[in-house]
Amino acid sequence: MSYVDEVLAKVQAKNAAEPEFLQAVEEVLESIRPVVDANEELYRKEAILERITEPDRQFKFRVSWVDDQGQVQVNTGYRVQFNNAIGPYKGGLRLHPSVYLGIIKFLGFEQIFKNSLTGLPIGGGKGGSDFDPKGKSDREVMAFCQSFMTELSKYIGADVDVPAGDIGTGAREIGYMFGQYKRITGLYEGVLTGKGLSYGGSLARTEATGYGLIYMTEELLKSHGQDMAGKTCVVSGSGNVAIYAIQKAQQLGAKVVTCSDSTGWVYDPEGIDVALLKEVKEVKRARLTEYAAARPSAQYHEGRGVWTIKCDVALPCATQNELLLDDVKTLVANGVTAVCEGANMPTTLDATKYLQENGVLFIPGKAANAGGVATSALEMSQNSERLSWTFEEVDSKLQQIMVNIYHNIDDAAKRYGKEGDYVAGANIAGFEKVVDAMLAQGVC
Ligand code: NDP
User: Fold this and answer.
1) What would the 3-class secondary structure string for the chain be?
2) Residue nearest to ligand 1 atom 27, measured at CA
3) Strand pairing report for 232-236 and 255-256
4) 3-state DSSP helix/strand/coil percent for the chain, to nearest 5?
5) Phi, then psi, of 157 in degrees rounded to 5
6) 342 CA distance to ligand 1 middle (Å)
7) Which pLDDT belongs to residue 208?
8) What's the rounded Cα separation, in Å, for the pair 81 and 62?
9) Ligand 1 atom 41: the closest Cα is on which residue?
């Protein structure tokens, strides 16, 4: 049995109840197979694959807090520190009822390779809780965040592990968590990214993941003799990543005609009105029905359906496993040119395969959405320097990073005879740097 198959079998047996983690490991290990095969003896002896698929450590803890009725509520908190071969652990905190250890492990594992691709010195980690901020008052969110950070603060630090936002964790939650970290430790340090501008945040961090996704999509299209101008795009989600992807795509001359949330979706043939979407989602924290109510050209539909709309470019920006085989069959039948993932692992393995087999340009999330964590690393640099860079400085560094990532993954795919397979390219390029650092640092 090959070393890859041996380790895949071990990981499957050991983590059988964590399908999302297994899906992520399978995708990565399958696509780095040529690199592993070329170094099989060394990697086997050094147990590289066993080490890279086993988190350095994982924390699971109780989060007790009091709701507005005086009732004590209990949630579970997690932090998985996956791999710090190339820098301090770095990865967001997801607050969503679906969170359990398997989701955090899949995200932490993906983060190792994504962070490596940015070219910046950051390792992989992830955390979160099954707490749902939806429908909670600001006081309840603060109570949760303070309790969560009371425990999390024992494991993190500016040079140790630097969490950030993710689904359900935006500027409000990061602010409450930063306040509690400072209160407990007495340290004013860059322990979290995605902070507000008045207390150490970076300009352009809010926009970074969505903007970065579009910078990469533009570079991909340019490399194939096209560009975003005049393209029709469909986007899923209406959170941080989706909103700024829509904004940048429109700035580059594309027309974005959909967005969605967890209850329904909007088709707006005149193009999504970003200012209205921001008002509904960022200010009012309301449902998309409010967008449709305020916009005569928009149609609101319950359930899922953005992928049924004919488009040139599809950008899944909501959550994992939201783009399924039947969806991509529709996209391909409708003539889609490119699919670039804003979310983490939104496309199932069979759907990814179908897109690639049908000649659709496909960039996986670990490359396409790396602009968020890259800009978080730029926030860390600014915090260490005690300086703030201008929006233009950060944005132009972000743009350069996304262009570099595209060419690195393109080159890596070509080096292993897999031209155009950006999944393989991203996994190989991300893996090569991490494995090099692991080997140099000995058995640890
Ligand atoms: P937000 O919480 O801001 O937005 C998430 C969006 O997706 C919302 O519109 C939400 O709908 C929808 N959504 C969430 N869960 C589901 C679900 N189970 N089914 C359908 N829709 C769902 O999160 P972000 O925009 O920050 O994150 C989106 C994705 O991008 C995630 O996969 C995240 O891991 C990834 N990502 C985010 C980065 C960042 O910088 N924020 C960086 C890199 C990746 P509703 O409003 O109804 O909840």
Assistant:
1) CCHHHHHHHHHHHHCCCCHHHHHHHHHHHHHCHHHHHHCHHHHHHCCHHHHHCCCCEEEEEEEEEECCCCCEEEEEEEEEEEECCCCCEEEEEEECCCCCHHHHHHHHHHHHHHHHHCCCCCEEEEEEECCCCCCCCHHHHHHHHHHHHHHHCCCCECCCEEEECECCECHHHHHHHHHHHHHHHCCCCCCCCCCCHHHCCCCCHHHHHHHHHHHHHHHHHHHCCCCCCCCEEEEECCCHHHHHHHHHHHHCCCEECEEECCCEEEECCCCCCHHHHHHHHHHCCCCHHHHHHHCCCCEEEECCCHHHCCCCEEEECCCCCCECHHHHHHHHHCCCCEEECCCCCCECHHHHHHHHHCCCEEECHHHHCHHHHHHHHHHHHHHHHCCCCCHHHHHHHHHHHHHHHHHHHHHHHHHCCCCCCHHHHHHHHHHHHHHHHHHHCCCC
2) 167
3) parallel
4) 50, 15, 35
5) 175, 160
6) 9
7) 97
8) 18
9) 166
SS3 175: helix
Per-residue pLDDT of the chain (444 residues; tens, 9 = 90+): 999 999 999 999 999 999 999 999 999 999 999 999 999 999 999 999 999 999 999 999 999 999 999 999 999 999 999 999 999 999 999 999 999 999 999 999 999 999 999 999 999 999 999 999 999 999 999 999 999 999 999 999 999 999 999 999 999 999 999 999 999 999 999 999 999 999 999 999 999 999 999 999 999 999 999 999 999 999 999 999 999 999 999 999 999 999 999 999 999 999 999 999 999 999 999 999 999 999 999 999 999 999 999 999 999 999 999 999 999 999 999 999 999 999 999 999 999 999 999 999 999 999 999 999 999 999 999 999 999 999 999 999 999 999 999 999 999 999 999 999 999 999 999 999 999 999 999 999
236 CA to centre of ligand 1 in angstroms? 9
- 375 Cβ closer than 6 Å to some ligand 1 atom: no
- Rounded CA-CA distance 193/175 in Å is 10
Q: How far apart are the first and last CA of the chain?
A: 26
- DSSP one-letter code for 146: H
- Ligand 1 pocket test target in 265, 319, 324 with most atoms within 8 Å of CB: 319
The atom of ligand 1 lying closest to the CA of 261 is 11
pLDDT at res. 105:
98
Q: What is the DSSP letter of 133?
A: -
CA of 442 to the centre of ligand 1 (A): 38
